[in-house]
Sequence to fold (672 residues):
Amino acid sequence: MIIMARMTFAVLFCVSLSLEMVFASDLIKDEQRAIEFLANYNEIASELYHDTVVDIWNYRTNLTDYNRQKCIESNMIYAESELESFRNASMFDIESFSEETQRQFKLMMNLGDAALQDQEKLKRLQEVKAQMVRSYATTQVCNISSQDPDECHTINEGIPQMFATSRNYNELTQLWTQWHNMAGQPIREQYSEFVQLSNMAARANGFTDTGALWRWKYEVEDFEEQVLEIYDTLKPLYFNLHAYVRRKLIDVYGSEYVNPKGAIPAHLLGNMWAQQWHHILNLTEPFPGKHLVDVTPILQAKGYTPRQMFEEAEAFFTNLGLIELPQEFWDRSMIEKPTDGRQVDCHPSAFDFLKGNDVRMKMCTRITMEHFITIHHELGHIQYYLQYSNQSFIYNGGANPGFHEAVGDVLALSVATPEHLHMIGLYDDDVDNPEGELNFLMKMALEKIAFLPFGLLVDLWRWRVFSGDITPDNYNTEWWDLRMKYQGVVPPVDRPEEYFDPGAKHHIPSNTPYMRYFVSFVIQFQFHRALCLEAGQLDNGKPLHKCDIHKSKQAGEKLSAMLKLGKSKPWPDAMEAITGQRKMDAGALIEYFQPLIDWLERENVNNGDVLGWDPTWRPPPPSYVRSERDKSATYTGKPVAMTTSGGHAQISSAAVMWICICLLTTWFSDEN
Fold:
């Protein structure tokens, strides 16, 4: 690969010299020459990108020092190639070309960090990012669990399970506090330096700051106004869900710790960041224990293997008339955890190698319903890759950053319905039971509706940091002001400005844009409704949440027409191709949840629940809990250890994984 890269640079260098010699005094206005340049760029960039993804794949499926070094080297080579291409492209008079040619140039010339031509500053930017990622990924919290006080936990192992299952107020408080202290606070100064350097790179790309660069990818001038308008539309739904869940939490923890008119303590919602609440479904089901849509026992009883789960998911796509998985997928994917002793990154990810039919999945599949749905989501990414594979390298990608996530989720909306699970033999309960229907919608709301304000505020905070409206002097204060305003959650203990709680969410140290998830959670319902209409599923008054587009060739054709576009058209064009609309719209999401909305409104009125929250209320310091099981638990207040792997060879696999991803200058689809 190194030899090929050097040959590629030689070609680029010669092209650069010839262009400089012939056109030293004027920008190139010859569009045919520009088109030839773009064709050359597409060929070279796709080859280098392929080699880069190969090295990322090799590392993440075999976590060795050798593979780690190869991963870093190939990312640096790719970044240098992109910068050289940018310099060559700058010799063309882009504004004089046709709209199509202009679009290609503008997409290829957004280099991200690589545009920062001061090599010392670029190197420092990469160092700071790597340091923040390593700090986050190697943080461990110890001495928390009363069952095993000496055990240490990471954010990928141990901590999620404790948040999902524990109802011990003190234990959750201690775990939440120590994670935020140890993952966030150490990178506070580094993040401030990172913001300055990142903004320099954004200005080198022609933007005022990094937030402006991120918003540019959505190709509409009023993007921020659009997302805020959508949130305002959905706010009543969220407020009703919030009030209902708050009342249910009072039943567990008591009104001293969960105030009937206050914000919800952030550590009681089953997730470290209170971003999705489905892990407390057992506390919030409208009809507890009735008609649970969890087919895990049936999958296991029927003896399903990971391969069979993937084949069942593939059948969903092929029955829509979409592209079947190529043989390369089955030959090269990792769909089970290897048994040969090598260490691997198990998080589900879809990979596009941009060569032939080489698309792959990386997943340590468990025989559960959660993984059954995840497989459909990830194969949605794979289908998108296959559909736009005939587009040029520049146009490979989702129509906007939220489209890729939405495509996977829109198919999962059909698969998760009791109707679909019943049809494929995985659900034998009554699919028309009203109580089961509300339980199902509550589960979906805890995943989808609960997420929306968090999905919005993460980048609202960062946009204001990048623009300078939020300064290092009020990072933490502004973070919690936004969380109070949009989410209605409050930290379990005081969080003064010396802390850096945004840094305790990995998208902050890894500098991964987050608005794509908010966008996805809205437009997936737009897509779902459009495909359901095309499939005739909404005829005769059938509600949207019961729609299953399985086997509808008409729906498949409409979806395929949008997927084939890739990034070749502005996303409103792609949106129009599938929905007939050119803007994001929350109407379909509201329609999907309408039965639950009606039920929540009645419940909250009947129980005298207050919608909204008093922003001044704070929970008392923890000392005991109301739950009978945990009544004797006490908060020790003892120091909790943080451990980080020391030495070059001991950097955690998660840290190096993120370092590799951060070095890429072109978007690479990865796990949600």
